[in-house]
Design goal:
The chain is elongated and about 50 Å long. By secondary structure, it is mainly α. It contains six helices and no strands.
Length: about 170
């Protein structure tokens, strides 16, 4: 299988897992929708929401470059399935956050809180590695504008998941 196909499949399965965890979690626990914001309120909530949309758009731009433009096959960085492995860590850990946080809210069991926080930090760490990997790569046939937009996109989602989720949300939750 090509790197592009593996990357596509990882993102297809992982994306469904992340979105599915949100849909199922919010369906099963509708009373916890507001509690999931933790201590984030007011203008912070608006800032988080806007950033979430930019982060999602940034990752979609990254996925476009890696698949449609074939960057996953053209990368000079580490070779093999580096991007697919890092994306799998990102998506798997991101899919754990919602169920772990909801279980914590439902049971008040600290094990679920720890799992929730760990999932956020693994998400952020894997995105940091993905960003560095992309930024340090050379791509034959990928133009400067596309490379720059893709880099900005992956930086935005990394910033969001690291700063807004793993640091600010965790700090404000309690």
């Amino acid at each position: 299988m090509t790197n592009v196909l593996v990357f596509f499949l990882v993102n297809l399965v992982g994306g469904v897992a992340v979105l599915g965890s949100y849909v199922v979690g919010l369906y099963i626990y509708p009373d916890f929708r507001n509690a999931l914001w933790g201590g984030v309120a007011g203008s912070w909530k608006s800032l988080f929401t806007v950033s979430m949309f930019f982060a999602a758009a940034g990752y979609l731009i990254f996925c476009y470059s890696m698949t449609i433009s074939g960057a996953a096959d053209k990368s000079s960085f580490l070779g093999g399935h580096t991007f697919s492995i890092l994306a799998a860590f990102f998506l798997f850990s991101a899919s754990i956050w919602m169920p772990a946080t909801l279980k914590y809210l439902a049971t008040d069991d600290n094990l679920w809180w720890i799992l929730s926080v760990i999932s956020l930090w693994i998400t952020a760490a894997s995105l940091c590695l993905l960003t560095v990997s992309f930024g340090l790569s050379n791509y034959d046939g990928i133009g400067t504008l596309q490379f720059s937009l893709t880099l900005v996109g992956i930086i935005w989602i990394t910033f969001h998941c690291l700063v807004f989720d793993a640091i600010i949300w965790v700090t404000k939750f309690h």
